[in-house]
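Board notes (copied after class):
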Amino acid sequence: MDGPQDKHTLGFWLSYCSVLGGVASWQLYQYLTNHHLASKHTAFSWPMFIAEMVGTLVLAMGLSAAFAKTLDTLSGAVTYGASYFVGILIAATASLLT
């Protein structure tokens, strides 16, 4: 594998195989135990959706800031960790409100 296209293709196939393996194990479990997993359905909530989107935005901006400034290892880890923490706090707040 030489170029970036090959790395993206490999990443795609690895994620595809991971999902396929998960579905296969789920179906095998249902077949062997003769027990179907119940699906849980919740109503759509706009406040929760918006909070998840804002949390994702904070996380993405922290990650891109750490990559764009080419920070050293410690500074990049602190930047990403802080944005991850704040993003989770924002997203989790909506689940408390709904």
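Comment from the instructor: The chain has three helices and no strands. Residues 42-98 form one domain.
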